[in-house]
Amino acid sequence: MFPKVSRLRSRISKLVTGDTPVPDLKPRLHAGDLAWLGDGDQSAHDANGKLRSCLCTQALLESPEFVRWIMRLEPHALDESGQVRLHRKLWEYGFIVQALYERDLLRTGSMGLGFAVGRDPLPAYMASQGCPILATDLYAAQSVQLGWSPDNQHPSGLAALNDRGLCSPKDFQRLVKFRPVDMNALPGDLQGFDFCWSACAIEHLGSIRQGLRFFERMLDTLRPGGVGVHTTEFNLLSNDATVDHQPTVLFRKRDFDELAQRLTRQGHHVDLVYQAGNTAADLTVDLPPYRQDPHLKLGLMNFTTTSIGLIITKG
To answer: I want to staple 73 with a disulfide (CB 3.0 to 4.6 A). Which of 77, 121, 186, 209 is the partner?
Structure first.
C-alpha cells in the first residue's frame, strides 16, 4: 500500500464506529454487494401507489412524476432531449415534493415547516401552491462555524429563497417567513404544522444519535396526521462500520429499522424498503473528485453512500 493511501485509511479508521473493517471503495458495485439489504424485489410504492420510505434510484428519478417536479424546480437539470441529470439532489427534491403531493399537502392553507433550507427551491415552490411556509436554518455565523454552509447554501435574506422566481414576489412575501432554528434544539413553540421537511441536513447534526433524536423531536412540530419528509445519508456497504460523531455521519439500515420500530410503537406510521436499484447508474459509485453525473451513489469517507427518503406520519 502506498504511504499516502495508508495514512488516509488510518485517518479514516479513526472516524469509524463498529467492529468490522473499513471497506475498500470501488467505482462500481455489483448486485451481490447490495444483497444484504434484503429488499431487492420490493417496490418503492405501497398498494395505493404512494411513495414509501426508500432509497435513491434511477428508476424513481426518471419516473414521470419526478421529472415533472424537476422541470418545475430545477429546469436547467434537464438536457436538450428532456432527460434528467442523474444526481441524487434532484431525486431528493422529487421525493419530498411527490410525497407531499400524494398526501394532498401541497394546497392552499397547508402549513409547512422547512429545516436547514439553505437556498433550496422548495419553500418558494410550496408558497406558489398557496402553502404558508416557515423556512428555518442556523444563524449564518453559526452555520459557517459548524461547516454546514458553503457560501451559496445559507440564505443571506428571505429573497434568496425565491431567487429562481418560482413564486410571485407578492405571494412569496405574504406566505414565506424565515426563522433561525437549531435542529438539535427545536423551540417548543413550533407546533401545529401540516408538514415538515429537510433535504440532506440530518446527517450534519453531530452524531447518529442526535440525528435519530431529531426524527422523534420533529414530530412535536406536526399536528396529528401531519407528515414529515426527510432525506439523509445511507451507508450502502455496512450495517455495522460507519462514520459517527463527525460533521457528516452515515446512517445504517439498523439505525432506521430501530427508529421505525420505536415510532410505530408510539403510534406513528413508517413504511420502509431498501431497494437500491440495479441499473448501470445505480451501481456506479462517483468517487472524489466527483464527476456529478451519475451521482446517485458516491464514495464518502471510504464508504459508499446514497440518499434515503423517510416519510413519517404522526399518529
So the answer is: 121
